[in-house]
Amino acid sequence: MRPLRITLLLCGALAGLSAGAQIGPFPPTDWPTTRQADKTVHYYVTGGLLAPPSETWTPDLQVLTGGDQPTGDISIGGFPGLKALGNYLNVADVAFTEWADDEVIDILVQAYGDAALFNSAGEPRNFTFLTGVLPDLAFPVGGQVAVEARNRKWNWILFRIPNGFRPDGTRFVGSVPEGAVAPAGGVNGGTIRFEAVQNLIVRAIAFGPQGAFGEPEAINVFSPADSCDPEPDTNLVGINVNTSSTNHLVVLNDGDQTVTVEPNVGPANDKRTAVRANGTGNYLNFGITDNYLGLSCNDPRTVKVCVEFYDDPAFAGAEVRFGPEAYATDDQGGIGFYPGDQRQLLAGSGAWIKRSWVVPAVSLKGINTGTLTGGPRFVSENGQVFVSRVDIAVFRVGNHPLAGQDPLADCFTDPNICTDAYGSFAELDLHQNIRNGLDLGSSGGDQVMVEGEAGPASDKRNGIRPARDEGPNFPNFQHNYLNFAITDEALGPTSQPNANLAICVTYYDDPALAGARFKPEVYQSDRNGVTGIVGTPDSFNVILEGTDQWREAYWEIPDMKFLGVNQGPQAAARFFVSDKVFFSRIRYAVIRPCGPHAGENALAACKPVVVPALSAAINTEGQLEIRWPAGLDYILESVPALTGTWQPVSVAPVTEGDQSVVRLTPTADSYYRLRQP
Q1: Residue 335: closest CA among 304, 360, 366, 358
Q2: pLDDT tier at 281 (50, 70, 90 boundaries)?
Q3: Which CATH number among 2.60.120.260, 3.30.360.10, 3.30.43.10, 3.40.50.300 corresponds to the domain 236-411?
Q4: This model's pTM is above 0.90
């Protein structure tokens, strides 16, 4: 009888909810009708377009921006919104002490229904919030959002978080512990921070006591998405003005986007036919024919645009800038604007420049493209720039057959990485007092570091280690980080694209610390046009063996932005170190993807030698089958007697899965080896 009783109780609860007729979806033009106007609520609304239902609802919330919590304005779904450009959305409540006695806090959000609400697989995920002040922090989970919210519409969503106690008996939200500095009662100037919400778009946020907005099961009900054909199996269009050839892309020539096409543009040795916008205030815009990349109702995607344009000598000193200006954010007239400081500043070099821009969340609706679809619209400031070629790629995701591909991989956002303009090596050697573009990072907060001497009796060296229990507020602060600052832009500007960074660390393998581990743990990376913090896998961990020697550890991180984590003005990865392990020397080398130094690695000697496993067996067809891991630069050689001369095997290896395989006719006396050229 117990299962039947539970079922009846559940049915009764649902019937009670339905009887009130207060169930979503609720329109975005007003607060949910389940709200309680007599409750104390603090809110934020973009543009102030939602009126409070009573005087107890006050606009005390502010969304912070800058640093590691940047935001940007956006117009989408018929309303203005605010987009999280980093990992965090930090909300400050000027009257945060209101919540000092609340056991539970409800967080009401009006959010746009796109991929940002879900995990990378498009499935529901936990929404985690950060409350409290260092060193006492809490990470409560506010709930999940159903997949029905991915409807390309504005949705009301209610999260509910516990407001627990610190060790001193005060609550995480609403009070500040003695000795702490937190103007809004939380971290980085805020009160409650949304965690891991990159690309989240919000229009309204409100804090209230439990039940102030209704119940989650009544509010978290979503309108269905409008139907739309799936994305096609394509990802690239382009036009070459110089050769009059096109791949489903045309230059538009109407309204405020009229153009002129001229021959013989460029230096004497590279004359081209090119197009430019007409006059000041005109745009250079392109239309995609035949809906070749998809429909305007398809989900917005990251778009990469590669352009070849002429840096006219007349532009020298004229502050001419060229690049994307605006793009559609949805198929309802929403517009996003590309940051002006990320456009190309032309120097008047007299050369053709080839570079790309990566723009996230672009709708193919386009801007002023008429019946065609489109990507970002371009603008020239303080001069009209000639363009000879444009290619537009869409980055596909999920289960799309082209997911993860970049058809414009050889077109870079900063062409200077293919020249000698930027350095590629930096070194900090504390024992030799070498500071070549690299220095100790800031020691403080939760990353206090200690300088000292370490090593075996015969080889003492100066080094740096984490403070661990010698740091303030231990164990609340574990002090298990090491951070290093890149100085004088030794590896190039922060604006350059992700760098393939090699790291070599000389560390003391202390017998007393055998089993301790360390690795470069977190760093910043640009993923599809959005920069955020990412972590390295556990396989990066180096485990101390206790050999009583100075040893070297090596890593390669292929997608490093020099923004640092809790470190400036430039930095790479922050190191996690589980114990008091000393580093005496730290070296960075950028492996450039192009130009005169393409593929060069100044730290190649630090890279551990990979000894491949070589296996041999007679297969079912009587052949000698020799296997070794694929992707390694080795040559298979043979010799009839060990006193003879080794010769390369004439049969070329084939790749089967993760193995290189050679099949030979067995001989009576043959020896085989792999040799690295």
Answers
A1: 366
A2: confident
A3: 2.60.120.260
A4: no
